Please model this.
Amino acid sequence: MKILYMEWPAYGSEYIRKELKAMGHELVIYEFPHRDEGLRYGEGIAESIVKEAVKNGSELIFSLNFFPVIAVAAHALRIRYISWVYDSPAVLTYAMPVFLPEVYLFHFDSSEVLKLRAAGVQNVFYLSLGADTDHYDEVGISPEDEKKYAADIAMTGSMYSEDKFAIFKKYENFDDHTKGYLEALICAQEKIYGADIMEPALTPDIMEKILKSVPLMAHEDSFDTVEWVFANYYMAKKVTSAEREHVLKALSEKYETALYTREETPSLPRVINRGWVDYYTEFPKTVKCAKINLNISLKSIHSGIPLRVIDLMACGGFVLSNYQEDLCRDFIPGEDFVYYESKEDAVEKAGYYLEHEDERIRIARNGYEKVKRQNNFRKKISEMLEV
Model:
């Protein structure tokens, strides 16, 4: 099959391209302007895609994440558009072109699949993310690497404390009642796994007060709501920031805990902040050199398995994660990974598996084998094409 492949700096893109070619498909690479303002209805982008597809006789368009302008071009061409969503919150999936019959949307979060189906989107399917275990197998660990990256517990990711995420600093005009309500909601959501209470709790009177200070609006071409945007794009980062700080602080008070992030972390004096690492070259080494690899999911991922978890397992790392419904559906807790239910539970389970090395190694190996078997790109791509 001749596939028009939308190329942009997305995690995993190079592995997908490699696998599609190995499966015998012919790829026409289109450098997609993913930061352009015309991602919804950019006429120039749509025309360019159509011309490229016609020129090369493309039978299918593929992209990581969903872009409405690609759907519009596929509709004009009457060819199918496969989108594999790996990001969250995926705001553009709520744009009206997602209803076009040429669109086949594969989403890593099953709760989002249910929401989109309830809204009337027919061609939307759950598909967990993939990994290239062969690539990670080739990453060796030298004595220098062991010294540099060794840790009892390690986590890679944002603390969402950077200026661009400090959203509540911009909203100082909230009245005391609204501030108190949102702070209580954030505190409650931090302690609740497996259920989203933020969006339903944004009542009309609260949203009315919020909108007096925050210039939020749903896009005219979207079927999302201001409640969805505020809960998933803004509040989710605030909850995640709090949970990551609280869990890391609790763990670091008892165990050697390393964090790989761009941000300064003065509120975590016992956490070893090793700065940011390259995801392709250094991240695998941090996983292989840590005894326990911690995942604290971004709260806008309501049930899905974050890409980081799949990659942790693909590297052979032992995964200690917060509860995620899809993770417990696709993998077996206590056999392929371990989940915690509170910061206290995280500390207790970390201590147990640091002391029980044989169990820790067995679980890490099980997770690796299952990802290698069921989350390889050949299998995932085949599932999409079969649909």
Q: What stands out?
A: The chain is about 45% helix and 15% strand.
